[in-house]
Automatic annotation (TrEMBL):
Keywords: DNA-binding, Transcription, Transcription regulation. It comes from the Bacteria. PANTHER family: ALANINE RACEMASE, LACI-RELATED TRANSCRIPTIONAL REPRESSOR. This is Transcriptional regulator, LacI family. One of its GO terms (molecular function) is DNA-binding transcription factor activity. Pfam families: LacI, Peripla_BP_3. Residues 5-60 form the HTH lacI-type domain.
């Protein structure tokens, strides 16, 4: 007996994305008639079983997030939960930042109505497992081909942060980056790294590899990054941190070392979480809760079978200038 056909087998035969197969067979959103017919023909030829829709009253949506207690994830999941609850759905939070949890990704036994992926990446094998659920999916941040997405332009946000520093006169700008070995968050880290490099190139500045320090995503990671910079031969005049948490850790270490901010070193974060205002932190603001709300609303449309197309929405970011940036010392 041959192997059981997968959703990717159907997608290959029909010449579409796996998410299109899911939408066509489950009837959760609009698919062009000719595409719908091609998918159904491929599924029939492969004897691929049509997904079984569960009663609405028993439906639950799983939210997959890396660091549920971190600011961005907590805000986004809060928006997701509020919107889905208003639509009559329960939310099950699954922490994919934990290796054991990643080994136990949702399967058909969970009885899910849908998935929302919050700023998390998956290996091809993991994504294939999730696609086999054949349920509607929406994404907050990150990307998933053929799936409704709401996020921000991380690259453009990083460009704005570094442009601000360049406009103040800085030419020696370091990047405090997320851990590149963290596969789950790689897409966000890479977009912000590219934005940093774009802004340097725009200003005619060469990046210094010693000033790109990747240590993690939180305040201790920011502190470790600054410790490393302090041990180097020359301290840059400005730091761009990929998160407010990293920026706050950097600020504490700089101040404990007696280094004036912004007199000697300027610092810019990314997020504009509530504590950023009280730390007087210059940062890039992003609407995390609204991203969750909008993605959940798209998922509700998909579950109701009224979603038109595959929306890809970028919400605006903005530079918030406070007291941690200023011109470099003469």
């Amino acid at each position: 007996m041959g192997e059981k056909p997968t959703i990717r087998d159907v997608a290959r035969r029909a010449g579409v994305a796996p998410s299109t197969v899911s939408r066509a067979l489950s009837g959760t959103s609009y698919v062009a008639p000719e595409t719908d017919e091609r998918v159904r023909r491929a599924a029939a030829e492969l004897a691929y079983p049509r997904p079984v829709r569960r009663p609405r009253g028993a439906q639950t949506v799983a939210a997959l997030a890396r660091f549920p207690s971190a600011w961005f994830f907590a805000e986004a999941v809060g928006g997701i939960e509020r919107t889905l609850r208003a639509g009559g759905y329960h939310v099950l939070l699954h922490n994919v930042g934990d290796p054991a949890a990643r080994a136990a990704l949702p399967d058909e036994r969970w009885g899910l109505a849908g998935l929302i992926v919050v700023a998390s990446s998956f290996t091809p094998a993991e994504q294939a497992r999730l696609e086999e659920l054949a349920v509607p999916v929406a994404v907050v941040g990150g990307s998933w081909a053929g799936v409704p997405r709401v996020g921000i332009d991380d690259r453009a946000g990083a460009v704005a942060a570094v442009r601000h520093l360049v406009a103040l006169g800085h030419r020696e700008i370091a990047l405090l980056a997320f851990d590149p070995d963290d596969f789950v968050g790689r897409a966000t880290a890479e977009a912000r790294r590219l934005g940093y490099l774009d802004a340097l190139a725009e200003a005619g500045l060469e990046p210094n590899p010693d000033w790109v320090v990747a240590t993690g995503h939180d305040a201790p990671a920011g502190a470790r990054a600054v410790d490393r910079l302090l041990s180097g031969p020359r301290l840059p005049t400005a730091l761009f941190a990929m998160s407010d948490e990293m920026a706050l850790g950097a600020l504490r270490t700089l101040r404990r070392a007696g280094i004036d901010v912004p007199g000697r070193v300027s610092v810019v974060g990314f997020d504009d979480q509530a504590v950023a205002e009280y730390a007087d932190l210059t940062t890039i603001a992003q609407p995390a809760r609204e991203q969750g709300e909008r993605a959940a609303a798209l998922l509700l449309e998909s579950l109701a079978g009224v979603l038109d197309g595959v929306p890809d929405v970028d919400l605006p970011t903005r530079l918030v200038v406070r007291g941690t940036t200023g011109p470099p010392a003469v």
